């Protein structure tokens, strides 16, 4: 009995252990030919040691997290392949430690702010407080429950009846903390700003916002592994997690013209699409918002990091969508308005051709299955002339990132209205 108790204790302390990334390096590699692409894709599928931040594609840079014991292997690999590799982060753990330092300092006036990242409890308490404070126009409700029993929450703002709607989903990828920080900043602006542009979009549009579409993964990224992307559903004897943004139903696990799935069937990989479409509680919760509000939304936005992209349909095929020219025009209005704030330059275009193949992602589902014409993925700040941080964007960039994204959204709304939407 004593032994069992001791074993249980050992088990508990082991599972509470935080992954550390001391002296891990992040390299940016440029994939210039098919052989190099295949090698990186092989690492993505089969290697436990390396972490490929986003799926590689031809003629583009991919960032790879390399543990110290793989430094010489990695050097040999890139040399053999003739692949350019640039060291961009020297010690990943240092960046992680810096990131949460301010929020761990106890403050006298425990006000919610965007000076530090907030954990799930802090975000949920703030959502409750805002819904209570602005109860005539705002509400928060549960739209599902994760496998670990956490609520998936939808925050709604409606200042007058008859409005068309914008649906925002954020932080579906656990490690992309800037996405939920931006979503809460957006809620705060919509409820408190006196700027006429913000008052316009908050008064004449209904907003449905999921700040944390993947609560289990988000908590795990705080408590256990800062680099976690997926859900926490047990998916095999060895592994946890489905990539919820590869689990949506529209053309789920469908290869594009080049044969690329843009998702994986291997449970241990970061882009595992799940056992079947909409198999996960998180994706079904989002699906219920679409279903319960059929015909309500003109715009759907999926907040991610990083890379400065505004991506449209399609992810699962290289064929441009029927509304390509409108999506591009409205997207360009977003880009121009965003760039005017801090000079950040977003690329706009179809996911598959601008970035990479991705089947089962939410914007394809919103556009293809639910007919929401203006569906976009936003890839926010991470690497730029302000520094190289990837997913671990220091908290001093939360506000500049959120301000430029909101300016971009004002531009997007204006352009959408010229096409007869959001009126
Ligand atoms: Zn993402």
UniProtKB/TrEMBL annotation:
GO cellular component: extracellular space
Domain Peptidase M14: 116-416
Family annotation (SMART domains): Zn_pept (SM00631)
Record Gene3D superfamilies: Metallocarboxypeptidase-like, Zn peptidases
GO biological process, one term: proteolysis
PROSITE patterns for the chain: PEPTIDASE_M14 (PS52035)
Record: active site: 379 (proton donor/acceptor)
Pfam families in the cross-refs: Peptidase_M14, Propep_M14
Assigned keywords, A-Z: Carboxypeptidase, Disulfide bond, Hydrolase, Metal-binding, Metalloprotease, Protease, Secreted, Signal, Zinc
InterPro entries hit by this protein: M14A-like_propep, M14A_act_pep, Peptidase_M14
Span of the signal peptide: 1-16
Similarity comment text for this entry: Belongs to the peptidase M14 family.
Function, as annotated: Involved in the digestion of the blood meal.
Name of this protein: Zinc carboxypeptidase A 1
């Amino acid at each position: 009995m004593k032994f069992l108790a001791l074993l249980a204790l050992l088990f508990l302390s082991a599972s509470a252990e935080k992954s550390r990334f001391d002296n891990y390096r992040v390299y940016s590699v440029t994939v210039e030919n098919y052989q190099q692409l295949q090698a990186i894709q092989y690492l993505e599928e089969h290697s436990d040691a390396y972490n490929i931040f986003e799926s590689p594609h031809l003629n583009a840079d991919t960032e790879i997290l390399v543990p110290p014991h793989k430094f010489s292997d990695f050097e040999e690999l890139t040399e053999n392949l003739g692949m350019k590799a640039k060291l961009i982060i020297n010690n990943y753990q240092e960046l992680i430690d810096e990131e949460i330092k301010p929020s761990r300092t106890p403050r006298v006036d425990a006000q919610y702010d965007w000076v530090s990242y907030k954990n799930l409890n802090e975000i949920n308490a703030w959502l409750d407080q805002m819904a209570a404070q602005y109860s005539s126009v705002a509400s928060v409700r549960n739209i599902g429950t994760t496998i670990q029993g956490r609520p998936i929450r939808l925050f709604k703002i409606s200042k007058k009846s008859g409005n068309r709607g914008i649906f925002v989903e954020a932080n579906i990828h656990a490690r992309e903390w800037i996405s939920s920080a931006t979503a809460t900043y957006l809620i705060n602006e919509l409820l408190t700003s006196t700027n006429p542009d913000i008052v316009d979009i908050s008064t004449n549009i209904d907003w449905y916002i999921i700040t944390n579409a993947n609560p289990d993964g988000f908590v795990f990224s705080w408590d256990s592994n800062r680099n976690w992307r997926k859900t926490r559903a047990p998916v095999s004897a060895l592994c946890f997690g489905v990539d919820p943004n590869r689990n949506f139903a529209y053309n789920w696990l469908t290869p594009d013209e080049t044969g690329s799935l843009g998702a994986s069937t291997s449970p241990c990989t970061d882009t595992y699409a799940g056992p079947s479409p909409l198999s996960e509680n998180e994706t079904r919760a989002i699906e219920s918002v679409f279903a319960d509000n059929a015909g309500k939304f003109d715009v759907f936005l999926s907040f991610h990091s990083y890379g400065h992209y505004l991506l449209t349909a399609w992810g699962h095929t290289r064929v441009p969508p029927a509304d390509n020219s409108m999506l591009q025009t409205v997207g360009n209005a977003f880009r121009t308005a965003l760039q005017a704030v801090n000079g950040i330059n977003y690329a706009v275009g179809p996911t598959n051709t601008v970035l990479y193949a991705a089947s089962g992602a939410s914007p394809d589902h919103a556009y293809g299955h639910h007919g929401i014409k203006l569906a976009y993925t936003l890839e926010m700040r991470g690497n730029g002339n302000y520094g190289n941080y990837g997913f671990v964007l220091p908290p001093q960039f939360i506000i500049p990132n959120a301000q430029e994204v909101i300016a971009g959204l004002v531009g997007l709304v204006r352009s959408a209205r010229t096409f007869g939407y959001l009126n």
